[in-house]
């Protein structure tokens, strides 16, 4: 019997895909779940997958690789999609798909399958990664084939096939959780007028319930990578877990966004990204201190393009690889410490220091100094403004 490797989360969609693949393709289904920091969600998956009809299941602890090879490059790039989204799902999918391809080779499978809908971005991310790593593998996307048209239909299918799921027609949010974030879509969130309800959140508390006194933390970076929290060296996974705990308790990191999907429509998503919000804030503050003006401004432009590449599923593209090389070169001096203030949903960098700081008090001071001659500014302005002067003289001569 031919095999297919299914990206399996144990959620509604992927749970019903197992019996669907067996019924419609006759495949032996090998389920694959990536542990990216979902926590307690993983506990029932082994038995559930087998009870639902999978031949075997891989539960892969990819947390460290997720942080070092996927989160850190995006953090160093400064990429935030459309100014709000920290790309937590976007860069998780290429890692999952990469491991699926490896398992397909181990198992001798001829295909991979995923539960992404035909309206979403994840189908692109799974499939572009597969095409980049092994274009010979067949790709099956049930949402583009079956007659199920809604999550309500999916729940009916699950009940008819005795597939246990936690989603109900009343509790119908689609959620995706990993170390970096927790996303919420669907249900009442589909109306962008509706405010996200506090009962939905799992990683953060509502700001009004956060402590009445601010929390201060210090983060150490080495070449753009966070390595310590409050002076204590931590591994990459532990550092993000600790930051999620501290920032979440202060109500930091909730984003509501109407985003432009790659497939052409707008969608509304709500994201919890407490630790990531702190790290992006701190990292940018350290770059302000250590990068020169032109490099910093050009890198901001690169971040927009980089964010689009990641969002669109082009993780393994030649352009992203080239941009990574540029970004890594900019991070050589992004070493130092940033102090961050967390208070009732706000995250503010309040101090930074670095041995590579380009800030000089003797140049910036308003007090007397012996380095900067203010008289030099006159000649600079005359030359810098010369094109404007020539333009004005020309316009004046035409009016005579």
Residue-averaged pLDDT, rounded? Answer: 94
> Structural class of the secondary structure composition?
alpha/beta
Largest sheet: 5 strands, parallel
* Strand order in space, largest sheet: 3-2-1-4-5
Number of DSSP strand runs? 14
Q: What's the shape?
A: elongated
* First-residue to last-residue Cα separation: 90 Å
Uncertain parts: none
| Sequence of secondary-structure elements | EHEHEHHEHEHEEEEEHEEHHHEEHHH
Strand content: 15-25%
**What Rg, in angstroms, do the CA atoms define?**
25 Å
Oligomer state equals single chain
Number of helices: 13
Q: Which bin fits the share of residues in helices?
A: 40-55%
For this entry, give a set of tags.
41% helix; 13 helices; 400 residues; alpha/beta
Protein model, in words:
The protein is an alpha/beta fold and 400 residues long. Helix content is 41%, strand content 20%. The protein has 13 helices and 14 strands. It has a 5-stranded parallel β-sheet, sandwiched between helices. Strands 10-9-8-13-14 form a 5-stranded antiparallel β-sheet. The longest helix has 19 residues. The model has no long low-confidence stretch (mean pLDDT 94).
């Amino acid at each position: 019997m031919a095999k297919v490797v299914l990206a399996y989360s144990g959620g509604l969609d992927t749970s019903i895909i197992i019996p669907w693949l067996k019924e419609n393709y006759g495949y032996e289904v090998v389920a694959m779940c990536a542990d990216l920091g979902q926590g307690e969600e993983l506990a029932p998956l082994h038995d559930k997958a087998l009870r639902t009809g999978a031949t075997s299941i891989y539960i892969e602890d990819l947390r460290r690789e997720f942080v070092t090879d996927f989160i850190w490059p995006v953090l160093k790039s400064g990429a935030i999609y459309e100014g709000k989204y920290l790309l937590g799902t976007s860069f998780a999918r290429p890692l999952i798909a990469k491991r699926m391809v490896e398992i397909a080779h181990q198992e001798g499978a001829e295909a991979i399958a995923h539960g992404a809908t035909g309206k979403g971005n994840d189908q692109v991310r799974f499939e572009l990664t597969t095409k980049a790593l092994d274009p010979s593998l067949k790709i099956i996307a049930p949402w583009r084939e079956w007659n199920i048209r809604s999550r309500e239909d999916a729940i009916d299918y699950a009940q008819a096939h005795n597939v246990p799921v936690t989603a109900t027609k009343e509790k119908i949010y689609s959620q995706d959780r990993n170390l970096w974030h927790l996303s919420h879509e669907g249900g009442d969130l589909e109306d962008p007028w509706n405010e996200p309800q506090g009962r939905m959140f799992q990683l953060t508390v509502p700001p009004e319930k956060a402590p009445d006194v601010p929390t201060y933390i210090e983060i150490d970076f080495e070449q753009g990578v966070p390595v310590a929290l409050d002076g204590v060296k931590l591994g990459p996974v532990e550092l993000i877990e600790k930051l999620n705990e501290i920032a979440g308790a202060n109500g930091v990191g909730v984003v509501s966004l109407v985003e432009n999907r790659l497939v052409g429509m707008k969608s509304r998503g709500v994201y919890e990204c407490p630790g990531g919000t702190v790290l992006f804030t701190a990292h940018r503050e350290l770059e302000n201190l250590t990068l020169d003006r032109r490099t910093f401004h050009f890198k901001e432009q690169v971040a927009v393009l980089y964010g689009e590449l990641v969002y669109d599923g082009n993780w393994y593209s030649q352009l992203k690889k080239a941009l990574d090389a540029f970004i890594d070169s900019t991070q050589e001096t992004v070493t130092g410490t940033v102090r961050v203030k967390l208070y009732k949903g706000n995250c503010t960098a309040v101090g930074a220091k670095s041995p590579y700081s380009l800030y000089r008090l003797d140049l910036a001071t308003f007090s007397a100094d012996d380095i900067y001659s203010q008289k030099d500014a006159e000649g600079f302005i005359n030359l810098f403004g010369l094109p404007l002067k020539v333009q004005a003289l020309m316009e004046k001569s035409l009016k005579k």
